[in-house]
Amino acid sequence: MSDLDHTFIDQHPLDGAAEAEFKIGFCLLPEFSSIAFISAIEPLRLANRVLGRKVYDWTCYSEDGEPVVSSAGLSFPVAGNLAEMPHQNILFVCGGLNIKTYTTTGVVASLRKAASRGTAIGAICTATYILAKAGMLSGYRSTIHWENTSGIREEFPNLDITTELFEIDRNRYTCAGGTASLDMMLSLVSVHTSHETALAIAEQLIHHRIRDGHERQRMELRARLGISHPKLLAAISCMEENLEEPLSCSDLASNVNLSTRQLERLFQKYLHRSPTRYYLGLRLDRARYLLTQTSLPIIEVALACGFVSASHFSKCHREHFGHTPSEERKLPH
Fold first, then answer.
1. Cα–Cα distance between 166 and 144 in angstroms, integer?
2. How many Cβ atoms sit within 10 Å of the Cβ of residue 51?
3. How far apart are CA 43 and CA 78, in angstroms?
4. Does residue 8 register a pLDDT over 50?
5. Cβ(134)–Cβ(108) below 8 Å
6. Across residues 234-259, what is the average pLDDT?
7. Mean pLDDT of 257-283
8. What are phi and psi of 173, to 5 degrees?
9. Which of 121, 176, 204, 282 is spaced 20 to 30 Å from 132 by Cα?
10. What global pTM score does this model have?
């Protein structure tokens, strides 16, 4: 234990019997992201420690009241089942893999019941999907892990799904998962207590900077691809923004002020494939997400990814991944 740990304990003894100012519930779904969950509760624990009083109390629940196994294979105990949860100030649903499988009528009913009692509702990682399915995001801004963004937008086109790190819109709290839940909770601590408290917590967690919700989820293309040529990066960015209606190679080149031949040379030099082949890979990757994360018909997935027919999409998918789109949906993910 460090000297600082002793200082906190000596100066801020906590009264275990004291009533917390904010009660936070966490509904753990099978295969939830353990890092996103832990990143959410640690700031609450440290807020109590830094301030020397019980600002937060948190309790975990599951749909059936049984322990829940995370995507990392870790088993987490819970205090009870979600349907019998007492009033909480905020209830966060913690998701991860195979979110559609765990979007049950029981969980949806419990969320609606909690909201009707005045509980604010939040989602961590992929659990935004459950809030959307429950009809709890209409008129609210929300976000979800970047892998799931295209899928949820296709299934719920009328919702305002952003690509932000986290969104706090009145009594709805959503974040992208991973360590984004840490920044979301630090933002809440700032509102509930003070910015200085949030900074002290971040320092304890060796979190060098509290990220704003508007920061991007994904690494910049430069870091993701390990290349720095500005025109090549601009062309790839153009591709990522135009998956449903793919641009021609000449249009891409024109957009970045290159000739078609120059663009082809850049792709061959840095990525060892043609622009057309690279673009196809991006579209097929998006199609794979839609196949595994939504119940959209295969023809709709094909059209959403710039393919003119289901047969053409199926042929390209089989050549790229080694199996058809319908087979993709039967594979474990």
1. 8
2. 20
3. 19
4. no
5. yes
6. 93
7. 94
8. -125, 120
9. 282
10. 0.75
What pLDDT, in 10s, does the model give residues 206-246?
998 888 877 777 767 787 788 889 999 999 999 998 999 99
Task: Please tell me the total number of residues recorded for the chain in this structure.
Answer: 333
331/283 Cα distance (integer angstroms)? 20
Q: Is the pLDDT of residue 103 over 70?
A: yes
CA 83 vs. chain centroid, Å, equals 25
Predicted confidence (pLDDT) per residue in 287-301, tens digit: 998 888 777 899 999
Q: What is the 3-state secondary structure (H, E, C) of the chain?
A: CCHHHHHHHHHCCCCCCCCCCEEEEEEECCCECHHHHHHHHHHHHHHHHHHCCCCEEEEEEECCCCCEECCCCCEECCCEEHHHCCCCCEEEEECECCHHHHCCHHHHHHHHHHHHCCCEEEEEHHHHHHHHHCCCCCCCEEECCHHHHHHHHHHCCCCEEECECEEEECCEEEECCCCHHHHHHHHHHHHHCCHHHHHHHHHHCCCCCCCCCCCECCCCHHHHHCCCCHHHHHHHHHHHHCCCCCCCHHHHHHHCCCCHHHHHHHHHHHHCCCHHHHHHHHHHHHHHHHHHHCCCCHHHHHHHCCCCCHHHHHHHHHHHHCCCHHHHCCCCC
| Token duo for residue 239 | 């591709």
What is the pLDDT, as a whole number, of residue 212? 80
Whether 13 shows a pLDDT value over 80: the answer reads: no
Q: Which two tokens stand for residue 188?
A: 């809440």
The identity of residue 48, as a single letter, is N
